[in-house]
Every structure is written in structure tokens, then in C-alpha cells.
Amino acid sequence: MDAVTASLEVSGLAFAYPDGHQALFGVDFSIARGERVALLGPNGAGKTTLVLHLNGILGGGTGTVTVAGLPVGKRHMAAIRQKVGIVFQDPDDQLFMPTVREDVAFGPAAAGIRGAELEERVRTALERVGMQDFAGRPPHHLSFGQRRRVAVATVLAMEPEILVLDEPSSNLDPASRRELADILRSLDVTVLMVTHDLPYALELCPRSLILSDGVIAADGPTAALLSDEELMRAHRLELPFGFDPKSVTMGA
Fold it and tell me: Taken in order 159, 162, 166, 167, is the CA torsion positive or negative?
């Protein structure tokens, strides 16, 4: 891991919406290259607002966001959008082409990649999510879990520095959930996972951040945070009934 440049550095990030609602009050954290980190917090904590700052969809607040050494802002926007890949909760927000292959090729092609290099990007991205045999299929013929994997491939085809996943396990059956976990563990990218699924966070992310009322309320090993009953209660985080975080072996 290159210690010189963090994958992601957020410093003093504060943001209010035009209606005056203050969503972030000064968020600070940094993620090293190759780390897998979960972003936890109750609804309304500012998680989505924070994520939309990471690739410049939202801006105009105070503080700084730096991705692989580049400050997020108008000047570096094209490079930032390539470096930060966001996989949204609903894959249908990302899949709109007639075939899986065309969906995965869309981002790199828009970035000017052509010919053999484009085909290689598509092939590699689909292989990484185990969907190479579905390249010619229309996305709407796939299961929800398969569509989510294709949505991940559309982002991987851009060869991002950071993969941001919004509720990656939502609406997945247990087998699809397991398949996606195996894929995410195998990827050689920095992962920031926004989730309410605390067991999934524990399984996949050695470190977690708790965002609450627009600030980072806790930052530490996922197992330690989820075992702290007082902390969990204070930030309206609840483990599934009968789930013991100490009983889970962490994915390396």
C-alpha cells in the first residue's frame, strides 16, 4: 500500500442544502489505498450527502475532499469521476443500454477508449464479477443480483481508485449476497461501503466510520464499534436479533 497518497481524504467537509438544511458539519477522515471501510449511520445522518461529494455531484460547501492526491473540484472533475466509481442502490439507475456488454462499455467509450483496449476493459470487468457469459444479454432479463453485479462491472470498467457502494446487499437473496461479498473481497481497489446491513459491514470491512448528525461520531475496527452497545444505541444502530458481532470471523 502506498502510504504517501491516501485514496481518500476528507477534511472539514461541511454542507448545507439551498433550503438551509445543514447535512454535514465538518467531516474528517482518511482512507488508505486498498482499505475496505463501512460508512454506517442512521437515516438522515448525511451519508448520501457525503458520498455525492466524493465525485463532485454535490459541491459548494466548505472543506476539502481529495482523491488519490487530486482535490475534488471543477478543475479535475473528469479525472475524479474516473477515480471514484459509485454503485447506486438500484442497479436500474445504472443500466440503460440494450445489452450488458454495451452498458459496461459505455463509461470507458465515453472517456475515449476504443477498439481492443475497450474490449479488454469490458471483458476484464465482467470476469471480475462473474458475468462474462451474460455479455450479450439484455440487462432487464437478469435477476436483481445479476444486475447489481453488472452495475459493479460498469464502474470497474473505468478502473477506479475507489469503489463506493450504496447499500450493496439490499434486496439480495442470501446466495446473491454471498456471491457479491466474495467479489468485493477479491477486488484490488479501495472500497467505501454505505450500509445499514451491519453483519455485512462486519464481514467485509475491517474498519467502520459512524456518521451521525453530520459528523464522524466514531472511527475504528468494525467489530469493536458494533460490540459497543452504548455507542450503537446513541446512534440508532441496531444489530439483528440474536446476532453477536464477536462470533463472526472477519474477512481479511
Answer: positive
